[in-house]
Amino acid sequence: MAETRPTFGIECFYRFIGEGKLMAAKCNKCGEILLPPRPICNKCYSKDLNWVELKGRGKLLTYTIIHVAPKQFETLAPYAVGIVKLDDGPQLLGMIRGVELDKLKVGMNLTIDFEKASSTPATQWPTWPRYYFKQ
Amino acid sequence: MQDGSVIMAGKPLVSIVSAGLSKFGRRDNVYARELFVEAVSEVFERCPNLDPKKDVKALFVGHMGEGYEHQGHTGPTLADWAGLLPCASVRTESACASSGVALRLGVMSVLSGLYDIVMVGGTEKMTHRTTAEATEYLAMASDYPFEQWNGITFPGLYALIATAHMNRYGTTERQLAQVAVKNHKHGALNPKAQIQKEITLEQALSSRVIAWPLKLLDCSLITDGASCAILTKPELAKKFTDTPVHILGLGQASDAIGLYEREELTSLKAAKLAAKQAYEMAGVKPEDIDLAEVHDCFTIAEILAYEDLGFCKPGEGGKLAEEGVTTLGGRLPVNSSGGLKSKGHPVGATGVAQAYEIFLQLTGQAEKRQVDGAECGLAHNVGGSGATATVHIFRRG
Q1: pLDDT tens digits for B82-108?
Q2: Do B147 and A93 touch (CB under 8 A)?
Q3: pLDDT greater at residue B81 or residue B7
Q4: Would an 8 Å CB–CB cutoff place B167 in contact with chain A?
Q5: Under CATH, domain B5-129+223-239 is a member of which superfamily?
Q6: Whole-angstrom Cα distance, residue B374 to residue B389?
């Protein structure tokens, strides 16, 4: 049986995260890097896409320190969440770990990392592996 | 020609002939539909010439969360309780802009010629839920797989905007707090506001941190409440009231649901586009606006609104709040009702609640908070972290 072409979408994105890879869809027609990956390029409508692995390094655009957290994150609070502008092009939101909260600075360099096992109980639908940013 | 603005410039599109608002606040032992009936009663009382069953042909009603009362299919439920059956009815959901969108659809339905008279409104019952539950429902306005899943909260998203704004323009936590102080000052004059109490700058600055740099008193309220208005063609308006309020322009735009996908984190592109459409259609400029109700779900959101609506240059919103320009008595009072911050934010009701305040102001019925001589008003309603924005421009009839 022919191998099914992986679907460009959320489920595959997080499957790759589980394998320790930050993967995006690259549009072969216009060159846009789609993160999150999606089935059709929202810039030029092409379906001619490729998976590309991103380096996952970038600069912190902005951040917040969450003190009042949703139940599943309560034990982590206070924790930092930021938006990172990746050198690969796209922007991504994620938790920032391993940086003292008062050392956070807009513009600092961060790199993506991946959780070995899910740190939160699977009480929600759906449950995906997690990524986060570190220095 | 874009969005019909050339043919419409300055012309009344649709008229508001009546408006109603329930008391906002913690309303125990009532349901969203009963709150809506409270707003509807005021609408009918203000408009004795209206024969609701005969005249009202459609209902557009904003409602965000089925989760609060385990109740969907809100359109016909509210049409029934408002005594409007069998009129056409639909619930609109655009997060916190749900009834800004309902208002827009109502305007469009009358403009299309399909209906002469329609009702628009919104309702939400939130306070019977725990704060954690209510916050979780509100977070549904953000992206689940890439935002909520990664630990961001709804206040957290606006905190990300605040950090970016502070970093780029030097906006201060003190300026954010000034927005809260102003809106509580206004809310103290509004008998329907949830919190009719002034706060001090020190209280705002020392309130507990929710999502740094935003503190408890930077956040709007969890509220029960409903809003309602009657729209008709301008040529029919005088049949119902001597003092209609005309809608001259409207705009709406969308952006990526994920804040992280946006090119610009210090403004809301959808709001800027919606404002541009509305100004062009109305044939007015920001300097023509006498008062505005803007979407202050968090204090930073009001500062963004000043800039996105052209009340000041990008980056100068904090200063505008600081200088008192937007306080009652200032050149351009913003959120004379108390805004979402002090009047309250029953999410589905907010857009039409803003139109209600503008209606009162432009018809000289805003009592202690009346802006003297107000001719032209603007309402700015935002959904989520800015993926939806609507703007409406009103003029005294």
Answers
A1: 999 999 999 999 999 999 999 999 999
A2: yes
A3: B81
A4: yes
A5: Thiolase/Chalcone synthase (3.40.47.10)
A6: 24
> Mean of the pLDDT values across residues A60-74?
95
Of residues B145, B160, B261, nearest to A10 (C-beta): B145
Domain residue ranges of chain B, discontinuous segments joined by +: 5-129+223-239, 151-221+249-396
Task: Specify the pLDDT at position A37.
Answer: 96
Minimum-distance CB partner of A91 among B136, B161, B260: B260
The residues of B that are catalytic are 96, 345
- Amino acid B132: pLDDT: 85
Contacts of B383 (CB under 8 A, 6+ apart): B94, B95, B96, B97, B98, B100, B101, B141, B389
Of the two residues A122 and B349, the one the predictor is more confident about is B349
Q: What pTM does this model have?
A: 0.96
pLDDT of residue B1: 43
Residue-wise pLDDT tens digits, B37-59: 999 999 999 999 999 999 999 99
User: What integer best gives the mean pLDDT of chain B?
Assistant: 96
Q: Is the dihedral of CA B326, B340, B375, B62 positive or negative?
A: positive
Task: Report domain extents, chain A.
Answer: 10-53, 57-134
Looking at residue B161, its amino acid is I
**Cross-chain residue pair B258–A93, CB shorter than 8 Å:** yes
| Nearest-CB residue to A67 (from B147, B160, B211) | B211
Decide if B70 touches A, using CB distance below 8 A. no
Instruction: Tell me: pLDDT of A6 over 70.
Output: no
**Residue A123 with chain B: CB contacts under 8 Å:** none
Q: Would you identify the CATH topology of the domain B151-221+249-396?
A: Peroxisomal Thiolase; Chain A, domain 1 (3.40.47)
Question: In the 3-class helix/strand/coil scheme, how is B309-363 assigned residue by residue?
Answer: CCCCCCCCHHHHHHCCCCCCCCCCCECCCCHHHHCCCCHHHHHHHHHHHHHHHHC
Report DSSP letters for B214-276, one per residue.
EEGGGB----BEEEEEEEE-GGGGGGT-SS-EEEEEEEEEE--SSGGG-S-SSS-HHHHHHHH
Please report the residues numbered 199 through 228 in chain B whose beta carbons come closer than 8 angstroms to any beta carbon of chain A.
208-214
Classify domain A57-134 at the CATH topology level. Answer: OB fold (Dihydrolipoamide Acetyltransferase, E2P) (2.40.50)
Check: CB of residue B61 under 8 Å from CB of residue B92: yes
